[in-house]
Design goal:
The protein is an alpha+beta fold. The chain has one domain. The chain contains 1 helix and 3 strands. The chain is elongated and about 35 Å long. It starts with 10 loop residues before the first strand and ends with a helix.
């Protein structure tokens, strides 16, 4: 499986703790595409943001066909 390149342009992140988890949202400003996921607090901010960025890249690539 080929790696999906990260999206270009501005990406906004929001991290919101919910109990022992964190809800992470990533928004691609140019397209208005938003994804979200939940992960454990113990994963750390960098890992959670990277997971959201990977999901955003996947969604954007799937829309291109």
């Amino acid at each position: 499986m080929a790696a999906i390149p990260p999206p270009t342009g501005e990406i906004l992140f929001e991290l919101r703790p919910i109990g022992r988890s964190v809800k992470v949202s990533a928004i691609h400003v140019d397209t208005g595409t938003e994804v979200s996921l939940a992960g454990p607090i113990s994963a750390g901010e960098h890992v959670l943001k990277q997971m959201a960025l990977n999901k955003l890249a996947y969604v954007l690539a799937s829309r291109k066909g």
